[in-house]
Write a structure and sequence with these properties.
homodimer, 152 residues, alpha+beta, Thiol Ester Dehydrase, Chain A, 6 strands, 15% helix, globular
Chain lengths: 152, 152
Amino acid sequence: MTLAFQDYYPERFSHCFGCGRSNPHGHQLKSYWNGEDTIARFTIPAMYSGGVPDNAYGGTVASLIDCHGTASAAAFASRAQGHELGGEQEPVRFVTASLTIDYLRPTPLGEEVTVTGKLISAEGRKVRVALTLSARDAVCAKGEMLAVQFGG
Amino acid sequence: MTLAFQDYYPERFSHCFGCGRSNPHGHQLKSYWNGEDTIARFTIPAMYSGGVPDNAYGGTVASLIDCHGTASAAAFASRAQGHELGGEQEPVRFVTASLTIDYLRPTPLGEEVTVTGKLISAEGRKVRVALTLSARDAVCAKGEMLAVQFGG
């Protein structure tokens, strides 16, 4: 079984509502390599509706993009530094410095959506990631993140 | 009792997890006038932690800014058009086209945070809003939203 990026986070950083394996109330999003890019799949529960019951609210869209983005930043940075998450080195962790999201169309509830990440640049402790959230092969939202490594 | 902007949303648009009065699972954020600007107050429950248990995860920060932003856009647009939410006209509703958030410092859980909105511009169906989320008189996150009116 392939572990997700989030499975390598140290226990003290594993409580995120969006992607922490130690948060029983949360989404527990799991992000993986997909060639040179990254991918996560998630089905948004009905309670996270927007104003109308059929579509996700903007906060959940932002949440999934944010958590997949910081996880992807850690994976991209590790690979750029010549090792991989899950190797012998302490996993690097990233926080969001800035995130821009363009909402292009409604995001459906109750069916699988796909979140992707693509490395834009990795310079020192700063990683830029381009993100999408798609459903039924149509992009619902696009994101761009500046993530910054902390600790280490 | 002063009604919040969200209290004027028609029933069919009242199901948002972030601010819908008809969503029993959600935050039910309430936004109000504060002079020429807007304000909402909220205490983030412990379950919405980030990687560490003491701080909010980025998704909740984005959620509060997003919901306060679209509510503020509706209020600003109504006033710019010479009427007020809660007047005789059908309330205008706005959706987020684009949202940028800069995360400046951790957002605490379990204590009141304040979200503010300031009108940048209102042109036709497009409203730009500057947003902040603060705790203990320090700004934790800044946002800028482009909101677009729909329907009507």
